Amino acid sequence: MCQNHGVAYVSPGVVEVREIEYPKLALGNRKCEHGVILKIVSTNICGSDQHMVRGRTTAPSGLVLGHEITGFIIEAGRDVEFVKVGDLVSVPFNIACGRCRNCKAGQTGICLNVNPARPGAAYGYVDMGGWVGGQAEYVMVPYADFNLLKFPDSDQAMAKIKDLTLLSDIFPTGFHGAVTAGVGPGSIVYVAGAGPVGLACAASCHLLGAAVVIVGDMIDERLAQARSFGCETIDLKQEADLADQIAAIVGVPEVDCAVDCVGFEAKGHGHDSTQEQPATVLNSIMEITRAGGQLGIPGLYVTGDPGGVDEAAKTGSLKIRIGLGWAKSHSIHTGQCPVMKYHRQLMNAILYGKIKIADAVNVEVISLKDAVKGYHDFDKGAAKKFVIDPHGMIAN
Ligand SMILES: NC(=O)c1ccc[n+]([C@@H]2O[C@H](COP(=O)([O-])OP(=O)(O)OC[C@H]3O[C@@H](n4cnc5c(N)ncnc54)[C@H](O)[C@@H]3O)[C@@H](O)[C@H]2O)c1
Ligand SMILES: [Zn+2]
Ligand SMILES: [Zn+2]
Fold it and tell me: Is residue 1 pLDDT above 70, yes or no?
């Protein structure tokens, strides 16, 4: 039996690399002959993991983390027909059966058959069906024929693996945020948050032809990272009104489209920029988006938050000024990104040199043993996307 090691959540603020079970083609009693075992080439740390690690969810101690996975198939179940041992594949973070009405409609983020508790599942995530995470050496991927994106040529893919590793989540997620905000040629866009999702969204806005992409955050290094590939930036530590800060860039106090790449751990603006205000991004994007505009909300909002700022926030109820959004006829789009809707086209954008997404989000490759430090540095606001290389397969 092979050995396996992975990153486990221990308690708020604490993760550790420990020996974990080698994956089986099963989840408890559920047989997964439609699944494969992957030898993981790259697996990224995500802001979504941080919500759990900060103790802001009901994640149990011992949960093996990791939903952003790329790897080689080393074993395939009896019912796998089309992907093969030896294929290098990207794993969408959403687990989807391919058989339910939502999957059939392309809504793979809310598959009905992979999580008894609610629609939607993911690897290594609280309330997401109990599937084992992939910040590890090996992982099992169910419904492999449906879920996996095979790279056309493994050697070519390994040469661009720092970019392709972002197809499992943040590149499609940022792109989805832009698409659902209605970004197109000539758009003026505000992206809240300059973490990896915000930066991936900003780069996606450029890919979609936006005229001006304005990124807001309160971390200087992350704002500098956004400027490195042509974004305008807004420092939210400043006291000025967001609308005035936007007017200083584009001449008017509003944008065509806005994307929330922050979520429920949002901090306030100006003198409140160290204080949590979970509804602030939702309210500010309604304020600054033109009447008739669309709001993309990939930033995560939860149904249970032990660290919520008040009783209501502890159950995910936030003070949103919906009357303003209604008056402006805003369209609002929330939820998990259905990765599969975008990953093939975005793979081609990478392979044919249309975007340098790894540079935009500043990928840094680290070993599995350095994952604990990666979590720590990411939590401190490093302007980096940490990619774990558990088998030392990625060339520097
Ligand atoms: N919908 C999906 O499918 C999906 C997928 C991946 C990640 N996410 C979510 O997207 C969000 C961003 O992920 P990430 O990895 O970039 O996380 P991150 O924590 O690294 O980035 C969030 C950034 O928002 C900034 N911020 C805080 N308050 C702000 C405010 N009021 N205005 C602007 N910026 C503010 C923070 O300083 C930080 O830089 C998270 O909530 C994550 O869970 C959703
Ligand atoms: Zn993620
Ligand atoms: Zn399904």
Answer: no
Is the CB of residue 140 below 6 angstroms from any atom belonging to ligand 1?
A: no
Q: Quick one: how far is CA 179 from the chain centroid?
A: 15
Dist CA 127 CA 214 (whole Å):
34
195 lines ligand 1 (CB under 6 A): yes
CA 31–ligand 1 middle distance (angstroms): 35
Mean pLDDT score across all residues of the chain: 97
Candidate from 54, 190, 262, 361 with most ligand 1 atoms within 8 A of CB, to mutate = 262
Interval 278-318: pLDDT, tens? 999 999 999 999 999 999 999 999 998 999 999 999 999 99
Query: Residue 41 has what pLDDT?
Result: 98
Parse the chain into domains and list their residue ranges. Answer: 5-169+338-389, 173-334
Cα of 18 from ligand 3 centre, angstroms: 32
> Of the bound ligands, which one is closest to the alpha carbon of residue 300?
1
Is the shortest distance between the CB of 46 and ligand 1 below 6 Å?
yes
Closest CA to 67 of 93, 89, 92: 93
Architecture of 5-169+338-389 per CATH? Alpha-Beta Complex (3.90)
CATH number of 173-334: 3.40.50.720
**Hey, what amino acid is at 156?**
Q
Q: Tell me if the pTM is above 0.85.
A: yes
Ligand 1 lined by 338 (C-beta under 6 Å): no
71-92: pLDDT as tens digits:
999 999 999 999 999 999 999 9
Q: Which pLDDT band holds residue 356 (cuts at 50, 70, 90)? A: very high
Are 265 and 56 a contacting pair, CB within 8 Å? yes
Which residues make Cβ contacts (< 8 Å) with residue 232, sequence separation at least 6?
212, 213, 214, 215, 249
Kindly give the number of the ligand 1 atom that is closest to the alpha carbon of 197: 16
The best mutation among 45, 48, 386 to test binding of ligand 1, ranked by most ligand atoms within 8 Å of the C-beta, falls on: 48
What are the pLDDT digits (tens) for 98-135? 999 999 999 999 999 999 999 999 999 999 999 999 99
CA distance 373 to 366: 9
